[in-house]
């Protein structure tokens, strides 16, 4: 049983012979409410919220492990796994259930990280292509104005380079639009931030996330996590020294908004860099487009949130992000000012 108990939150599900639920874990009751009396109701395809068996694998000590998905229209799936602990001669079926949602979501965010990395590489290539094109246009403009004999050929070449530059700009714009499309109504459970952000730790930098006194029924927009918090975290990771750290603290403000503070041990920013950090296409990183924080700021504004930055050379950078709290259906909670 030790291997099972490590996977909390979890609990026992006890079923009578007719499928009546005698006991259930707290998280399962939170998913379905108290109105579900029979386990068969949870697999009813006519219900708006039902369970679907995903796969069966061999668990520890040859015990079969069943993976189940919660299917609900318009909401991100939830996941659980369970083991059958029922003795052969028992009249009550006993199962041990584990809420695997945060674990599965951590994989989802890792996939998103790969996607963002690919987009950043694309934008970097396009940005590196744009810079020499702009330089070339400037040189051709000088030829057009100062060398009449070469003007016609320079004008033709100018048009060709301008077309290439316009194509590159459209590519950057399309990549940015694809990355920063905002769906503000998909809720993300705040307490799951710890498992998602810890997946960003590597051999050189430890990412520590502490969620302070926040209950499991507190949500924020998943766009705030993917398009605002993660770019800030990635900036912090890129700025870290060897054996550095990033601390993330999540609290609930008296106004009802969720506050996420990201503090790194990196090199910090100069006053000039701090003033321009949110400017589009401003970057101190070779090969980057410089749109990360600018795009994140636009998303944050659309979500009704705000942020502030503080930094000092060799003392790291702190970013304080405040976003509206959502309810479980994706609506903005009403007690926020």
How would you describe the overall organization of this protein?
- There is one protein chain.
- The chain has helices at residues 2-5, 26-32, 101-146, 151-179, 193-198, 222-238, 271-276, 292-303; strands spanning 10-15, 21-23, 49-58, 64-72, 78-84, 93-99, 187-189, 205-211, 219-221, 244-252, 258-264, 306-312, 316-323.
- By secondary structure, the chain is α+β, with helices and mostly antiparallel strands.
- It has a 6-stranded antiparallel β-sheet, with helices on both faces. A 5-stranded mixed β-sheet has the order 8-10-11-13-12.
- Helix 3 packs antiparallel against helix 4 (151-179) and helix 6 packs antiparallel against helix 8.
- The chain starts with a helix and ends in a 14-residue tail after the last strand.
As residue ranges, the low-confidence spans are 1-8, 280-284, 286-291
Basic shape = elongated
Largest sheet: 6 strands, antiparallel
Strand content is 25-35%
Supply Rg: 26 Å
Look at the helices and sheets and give the structural class.
alpha+beta
Query: Helix proportion of residues, in percent?
Result: 25-40%
Order of secondary-structure elements: HEEHEEEEHHEHEEHEEHHEE
**Span of the ends, CA to CA:** 47 Å
Number of helices: 8
- Please identify the oligomeric state: single chain
Q: Can you count the beta strands?
A: 13
């Amino acid at each position: 049983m030790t291997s099972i108990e490590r996977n909390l939150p979890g609990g026992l599900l006890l079923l009578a012979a007719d499928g009546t639920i005698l006991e259930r874990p707290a998280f399962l009751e939170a998913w379905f409410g108290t109105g579900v009396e029979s386990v068969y109701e949870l697999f009813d395809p006519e219900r708006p919220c039902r369970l679907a068996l995903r796969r069966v694998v061999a668990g520890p000590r040859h015990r079969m492990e069943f993976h189940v998905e919660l299917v609900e229209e318009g909401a991100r799936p939830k996941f659980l796994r369970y083991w059958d602990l029922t003795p052969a001669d028992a009249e009550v079926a006993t199962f041990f259930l584990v809420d695997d949602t945060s674990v599965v979501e951590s994989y989802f965010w890792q996939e998103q990280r790969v996607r963002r990395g690919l987009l950043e590489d694309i934008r970097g290539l396009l940005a590196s292509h744009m810079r020499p094109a702009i330089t070339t246009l400037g040189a051709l403009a000088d030829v057009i104005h100062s060398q009449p004999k070469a003007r016609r050929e320079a004008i033709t070449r100018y048009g060709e380079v301008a077309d290439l530059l316009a194509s590159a700009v459209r590519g950057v714009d399309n990549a940015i639009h694809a990355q920063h499309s905002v769906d503000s109504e998909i809720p993300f459970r705040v307490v799951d931030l710890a498992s998602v952000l810890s997946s960003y730790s590597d051999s050189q930098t430890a990412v520590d996330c502490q969620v302070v006194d926040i209950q499991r029924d507190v949500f924020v927009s998943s766009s705030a996590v993917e398009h605002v918090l993660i770019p800030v975290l990635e900036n912090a990771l890129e700025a870290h020294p060897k054996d550095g750290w990033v601390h993330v603290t999540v609290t609930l403000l008296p106004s009802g908004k969720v506050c996420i503070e990201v503090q790194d041990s990196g090199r910090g920013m100069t006053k000039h860099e701090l003033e321009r950090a949110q400017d589009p296409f401003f970057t101190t990183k070779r090969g980057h487009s410089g749109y990360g924080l600018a795009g994140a700021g636009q998303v944050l504004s659309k979500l009704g949130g705000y942020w502030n930055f503080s930094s000092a050379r060799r003392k790291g950078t702190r970013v304080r992000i405040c976003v509206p709290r959502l309810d479980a259906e994706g609506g903005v909670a009403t007690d926020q000012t």
